[in-house]
């Protein structure tokens, strides 16, 4: 009965984090569904923000573009916090480049048609890069704080003009790792740690009960029947008249 109560308490301990994770997961899913199409305010710099629309422009010849995540080679993005990347442009052409701004979006890695979040566009007030020159532009963005941790694809595009002809170039089209902000422990990690501790406690209680049962059995000594000096009456009758009976009677008389 005691073991049954211990097992029941262990089951309650195991079930409590499951209920909490399920409740928080359902709440976060509902909130993410409402914010999938919203544009985050993080990444807008002053009044330079512009709406470039969804127009697709051609690639410009003689323009090399690179992208770097400064001090973040793992490309970790904390949900709900700002993340910075740098876009470098090298103008190998004969005409200056006028940079309009940068836009980006987050997609599911297995299908870019499934949009997760449109990030804010950041303008640069038509900054100019002369011919045979280069420049670096920062882009600060932030994903929704309700976005579930995991791997996503970030697609970043820079829009610029050369001789009043609009162009665009994708400076990054790769994976980012979204993590929970505020610490290294995620909800899944806390649940797994709690589950492991509960299983260890349950195993320890079971092992303790088994050791107690074995010790109790070892303390029970086997009962050994020891014969007494009393003789059966029938045996005495059978010995009457024999030499053994006479010798025993003589011994009893001597003792008296």
UniProtKB/TrEMBL annotation:
Which region is the signal sequence? 1-24
Membrane topology is: Single-pass type I membrane protein
Q: What residue ranges carry the coiled-coil annotation?
A: none
**Predominant place of localization:** endoplasmic reticulum
Q: Which UniProt keywords apply?
A: Calcium, Endoplasmic reticulum, Membrane, Signal, Transmembrane, Transmembrane helix
Q: Where in the cell is it found?
A: Endoplasmic reticulum membrane
Query: What residues form the membrane-spanning segments?
Result: 189-207
Its Gene Ontology cellular component terms are: endoplasmic reticulum membrane
Description of how the protein assembles with itself and partners: Heterotetramer of TRAP-alpha, TRAP-beta, TRAP-delta and TRAP-gamma.
Annotated function: TRAP proteins are part of a complex whose function is to bind calcium to the ER membrane and thereby regulate the retention of ER resident proteins. May be involved in the recycling of the translocation apparatus after completion of the translocation process or may function as a membrane-bound chaperone facilitating folding of translocated proteins.
What the record says about its domains? Shows a remarkable charge distribution with the N-terminus being highly negatively charged, and the cytoplasmic C-terminus positively charged.
Family as reported in the entry's similarity comment: Belongs to the TRAP-alpha family.
Record protein name field: Translocon-associated protein subunit alpha
Originating species = Salix purpurea
